[in-house]
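cron nightly-structures :: item 1 of 1
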Amino acid sequence: MSLKLKDKVCIITGATSGMGRAIAKKFSAAGAKLILSGRDKVRGSKLESELKNTIFLEGDVRDLVYNERLVETAISNFGSLDIVSLNAGILGLGNVVDLPVKVWQDTLGTNLSAIFYLSKYAIPHLKKSGGNILINASIAAFKSFPNHPAYCASKAASVALMKQMAVEYGPEIRINAICPGPVDTPLLWNSAEAFEHPESAVENAAKSTLLQRLGTPGDISKLALFLVSEDASWITGSAMTIDGGILNA
C-alpha cells in the first residue's frame, strides 16, 4: 500500500470494533498518526499496541469534554489535525411506542450529537491544515427498517449535518459521509435481533444485495481511505452508498 496518509494526524471514533477498527488499521498502514476513541479499554489498548504512532483514549463520545480532549490530545502529541473519521454508533432498537426515552436519547447522542461535538472542536484545526471529516452514516438514512426509529432518524440527520457543514466550511475543509449497507459486524447481528428470525434476516440481507454477499469491514475501509486522501480532493458534501447494490435491488 502506498503511504497516502503519510504523517497525517487522524482522530477515529468507534475504533475498537467493526468498521472503525478496520479503518484504523487501513489508515495506519497508509502512514497516518492516530488518536483512537472507544469505550472498550482492553480492545483499544490492544489496537494501540499493534499500530505505530497511535494513542488510544477510552471514553464516551456523548461527553462533550471527552471530544474536546480527543482534539487536544492530537494537537499536543502530533502538532496538528488533518482527518476526523466518525464511526461510533449504536442501534437503539424498539418501536416508537415501546422505545424508552433514555435509549432514544443515547442513540441520538452517540450517532448524531457526537458528530457535532467532535466537529465543533476539530474544525478550527482542520481549517488550518486543509483537512477533512468523514462520517460513517448508513443506508438507514435513506431506507427504513422495523424497530429502528432512533437509528434511522440519527443516520438521516447525520447526512443532513454533513451536507450543511460541507456548505459552511468549503473550500477550506472537505466533509463527506459513507452509507454502508449490510456489513458483517457485531452491529449487523445485533440489528437482526429486531426481526423474528435473526439468522435468516442476515442471510436474507446478503441475498438481497446485487452482489449476493455481505460487505466486510475491509470493504468500508478502502472507501474511507479514498475519501480522506488527496485522491478525493474534488469530493465534498457527498453521501456515498457502499451497499452491494441493495438499494437498487
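cron nightly-structures :: done
The two ends are 33 Å apart (CA to CA).
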